[in-house]
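Q&A log
Question type: sequence-to-structure
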Amino acid sequence: MNRSQAVVHRWSQTLIPTTREAPSDAQMPSHIFMTRAGYIRPVGAGIYNYLPLAWRSLQKISQIIREELDAAGASEMLMPALMPIELYEGTKRDQDYGDLLFQLTDRHGRKTALGPTHEEVITDLMCGCLTSYKQFPLNLYQIQSKFRDEFRPRAGLLRCREFIMKDAYSFHLELEGEAGLNETYDKMYQAYTNIFTRCGLDFSAVEAEAGPIGGSASHEFMVNCVNGEDTILVCPESGYAANVEKAEIGDRAFSWDHEATAEVTKHHTPGMPGIELVAEHLGTNAAGMLKTIVMRSVEESPRWVLAVVRGDHEVNEGKVRDALGVAVEMADEKEANAAGFAIGYVSPKMLDSIDLTMVIDPDALGSGNWATGADEKDHHITGFNWARDLPSAKYKAIIADIRNAQAGDPSPRAAGANLEAKRGIEVGHIFKLGTKYSAAMGLSVLDKNQKNQDVIMGCYGIGVSRTLASCIESSHDDNGIIMPISIAPYHVHIITIKPNEEGVLDHAFTLAEELRELGIDVLVDDRNERPGPKFKDADLVGIPLRIIVSPNSIEEGQVEFKKRTDEGKAFLVDRFKIVDICVDEVKGSPQ
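Response status: OK
Response body:
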């Protein structure tokens, strides 16, 4: 509690436009309730006004972030939202972001972009500022608006085109030691744990893929929520947790020696998009088919790669990369067709026809009778058997975990345990970038031995506006928002009954001032409204502690008190005890 900054605000003088109707395009509870409770209003597709309630909560989240990052050794700065497109020349991330990157041309014909993140800007800055090994480690952060041109912005603040984000960047000349990346990464991991704990969130830290940011190790911080947009896989015994793109799968038995149980038969399968239709036509199911994906390695001399998984599974590019030790990407269809691949109808038998590398998931070796492509447009085969029809694969192919994990798969950390699925919303992501950006943009420094070395970087992001939305998504009931005390716009909501009667407002504001002097933020509903609408609005906005001041309670020297989380009616409390009760509630919550 910060006594010097605590406030008392009147509802009648604050913009809180509550409404009983949900916006027609709103489906997620956070979007519905933030609009109905007067936290946000749309300006355009994926662009929002943050009204006073939302802004107060965002400021509190930001302050928690500042306190924890400052304690972790980071310093705050501010970079521009606009960046010259030339900054992407070395990293090519404008190509990685594609249409998500807002681009514009100014009156002089110069191309610029609105920053989705600021790796290039900070790296360019450091090229002129870092000159000695004595300056390391360095950790800088900002809290600022970011921009992504989402094709279908939805879910209110969870997926929009302009949003508030904290991004931090650390700089090192080594991995280990007090000045190393690993030391700072661990400090930031702990800072993130502290931040989301103080925000009152139920969250999980999970292993994750780096995505378009790049780098090696990374962790996502996910708010656990049944309506979450992401799937998290967890081991109930070891505590291992990872997102679907990163989750490993435990050992799975496989064999090359399954007996062939049918002859190979070709089938005409025209006009059947999707594996389910093909499987039904062939008299099997997706799990009885092989899916063979054509990929291309990303290296000086690219090679063809075939990734084979069971038909009901999805190939994971990151795992294929790890199995081969080189980055891969989906093959260009025209180039692949020209090389002899019948895209959409490729079979593993191409291993004997084209110089390529094949990687097979263990589950794709679990049967002796498979349906697969026929290497001919509009045709599939049934009866494929690895031992009989492609014996060379046993000696030439790589067997590796290359598919997305799913619930029920063996745990990679506890023998006999199976992975379980949970839903979550990503609110933070930390990365070990390595030298991805420094090497591309020429950021190097002479080390202690006077040897020129590329600077090692880390990157750490938190969606500030997304954190607020995720909190509401995971903490609400049928009547509205249930805000944690630490990030609620106000700690206490005083509702006046019959405020025009003598003494009611005086008592309410005297109580509010006593609370403010003790560091508690107070909203006084001083409107001359009936009690019913006031109580409904109170449930909507979700302020944690509620005090009701009425002529009857004043006469008896009491007030009514209720927590937002309590069911049923408020209960009477002695007027001179209510301040201590509220202070204890606020002090007892994460701050």
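Response note: DSSP finds 16 helices and 32 strands in the chain.
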